[in-house]
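Issue 218. Parser rejects a valid record. Input:
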Amino acid sequence: MNKNENTIREDELSQLFARFTPPMRDSETFMERLDSRLDAVEYLKDMQRAQVRRYKATVLTAFGAGVVVGVILLAFVLNAPPSEHLFCFGIQSAPFLFLEQNSRIITITALSLLLAGSIVSIVYTMVHTDLRQDVWKMQMSLEK
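Output the parser choked on:
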């Protein structure tokens, strides 16, 4: 495109915008809708702040519980007599002997994974339950 074509298109656009006259609505209705939407935005901001506080408290609680339970389980496993295996199959097969000899490590790993999975599941459930409730409340406030 050259300069002349750009100028013509700009003139056409400016004329198009100059001719455009949107229908005027009732200003009270507009202001009511604007106020309700601004209130909804403020409500969402407040809910988000509260949600972040709940998530932080939940994560700290889950972390604390995990540390306490982990320490207790570790103390239990380490206080068992080293000569005794934590579980015994009574079978002289190589895979079962390996499991018996490494029963402490296997037990600690399994309990740690179980604990971590439980904590993640609890936090996940709390987060998604709160999100569904917040979305529902937001929809209800916007419909008013």
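Fixed in the parser; the record now loads. The mean pLDDT is 76.
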